[in-house]
Amino acid sequence: MNYRQLGDTELRVSELSFGTWAIGGSWGHSNDQEALRGLATAMEQGVNFFDTADVYGSGHAEELLAKATKGKEDEIHIATKFCRAGDIHDLNTYSEESVRAYCEGSLKRLERERIDLYQIHCPPLAVLKDGKVFEVLDKLKAEGKIRHYGVSVETVEEGLFYLSVPGVKALQVIFNIFRQKPAEELFVEARAAGVGILARLPLASGLLTGKFTKDTKFEDDDHRNFNANGEQFNVGETFAGLPFAKGVELASQLSWIAEGRGDMARASMRWILDHPEVTCVIPGFKNVRQVEDNLGTLQVPAFGPEELERLQAFYRSEVAQHIRGAY
Questions:
Q1: Distance (Å, rounded) from C-alpha 24 to C-alpha 170?
Q2: Is 45:13 a contact under the CB 8 Å cutoff?
Q3: Could you tell me which residues come within 8 angstroms of residue 216 by beta carbon, excluding any fewer than 6 positions away?
Q4: Strand pairing partners for 146?
Q5: 166, 172, 210, 321: which has the highest count of C-beta atoms within 10 A?
Q6: Are strands 77-82 and 49-51 parallel, antiparallel or unpaired?
Q7: Residue 25: what pLDDT?
């Protein structure tokens, strides 16, 4: 396992870490025992960082992490998120009373005294421009409730704004071969500001595994079904904002990236890690097999300059015009 510094903080985290949305809920059927085995396997292989949120399974993902990391609180770092359990457009959601309640709830479920990275969960930029929520987070940091804080963002514009907030130490962004815009400006500015980058949805909700066909169906409780067109939340969180059929078509044109790299999934995550500004990539998982498959990313070769240029040109000419939603 390789480790990277989270911005200018003291935290060094595994460059391939894991997100827990899938084991919490909204990705179809999952099994808690298999999820716990997956978490154990990841830690055995050197993974020391996991991303979660209070709304993943209404806190269930946090509870699973508590079980998996019991007794390892000093060596396994956890990032969680808040605000989406309330009305994200209501200023009261970001009040000191509300944020403290969210924080205490997560601490209780995680069975920890401190959260390593506490992130605001994709808030509307307009409601945070007054900066008051960051004053609350500074208080929680001073009290030892949180170690560092950051923001999970939907757009480059949001990310650039939060870089100007002194206490923000991490940005979580959607970044993958289908969603390359953050690399154009945001990454350079983040590195200059000493802010880490967590790359979420590295496989574009599974499109970049190359395993889907236009006839693939998803379970009713899978967001790839109920949010395929942004019916419930930002369309960019599902298939990187691409219409599903178009995403399958585009993925079929990328099969070449798997040559010498095992499969498309590993190649896609290797491409993300080839960006030095990225602190870690956080794929999801439901079972041990998926954890092991994702960890295989660390064994595949980096992309060369010509390959990187080819993928950038592909994004600009074939992909970008099909992405829906602000990004």
A1: 23
A2: no
A3: 248
A4: 115
A5: 172
A6: parallel
A7: 67
